[in-house]
Specification:
This protein is of the alpha/beta class and 373 residues long. 28% of the residues lie in helices and 18% in strands. A hairpin with a 6-residue loop joins strand 12 and strand 13.
Amino acid sequence: MVAGVKKKTFVYPGMLLAEHPSLEKGDLHAPIYGVITEINARSVFVDAVNPADMEPGTFPDLPEPVDLLREGKEGEELVLTIKKMGVNTRSLGCRAKTLIVNALNPEPGVCWAEPMLAQHADEIRTGLELQRRLRRADEIIMAVPTGCSSPISGVKTVEVDPTYPNSVNELLIKEVTGEEAPPDVAAVGLHNVWSLGRVGTTGLPLMETVITIGTATEWANYIVKNGSLVGELLEFSHITLKSGDTILRGGPLRGESLDRLDRSITKGAYGFFVVNAGEVPPIEGDSACINCGACIQICPTRIDPRMLSRYAEFGKYNMSRKENFRLCVDCGLCGYVCIARRPVLQYIRLAVKRLAEEERLASLTPVEPVSKG
């Protein structure tokens, strides 16, 4: 829902552009000085301007910082304040006696975890305190890659083998606690802790994200403005696209391919990669499963991605229930090893989405009482 802005409106860093209708999604704020050029149902497009080139009074003073820690808010009140500052709050209100901070890099190729721990201790410390207030956690454990130390004093640290898919939250919880899905235990990614801490330390809305940008041979970490265009980041990183290259927003295993350079880096994105033509055999949407079983053998939760992808391919979504589709941790290994190059993960995601929609609609449909007579 657009918050009273329209085309040709001048915007400034931190200015509210749109309020998200979901209580789980953060509101949208301008990350730069600029002027709105287009508005649609999903995006607000802003062209950057130099405020020094504009008439005096074009832009108001920047918003006053909000001291989240000093305000003393907790629970739902704090969740609502954070949502208004642009942070996604889907899991922030969930109570957890033990909160595990997942300080492993989320996917192969992504490499910001260790430098973030070393260079952003203030943001992480503030993010942890806000997480504690939001989750009302009795204990916080930080899971770090083997051989990596945490600069955060007073927080219990556990070293974990960073080999993928140990960085997937569900698998990390088992690695740290020795139990599968233990009650009152939750995990949160270091990236989310940093984002929350960024808001807490600056007192300003969330306008940036940390991402790894690179190829199979070269990569680097950057703090970029939310909404930065893919083409601009490629140019800044001195990466030249060649015919047949694939652009991934996210990581190499779980990211989504993009078809245009004017796509943007979305809030919370943690990686942006270019896969050179010929490095990985392309996915074939109409390729048939050959029953090799490679996806079953590599699946960390031992479900059957082969059958799940088939059910989704032919629209038999309800059949996914008997294959325990809820156990999928979305790691992407099934598609990576698929010899037939099927979009296995994408099929499973489609089934999960369709079944979730069915369940949501069922919960809204009133049930007529059965009369007895």
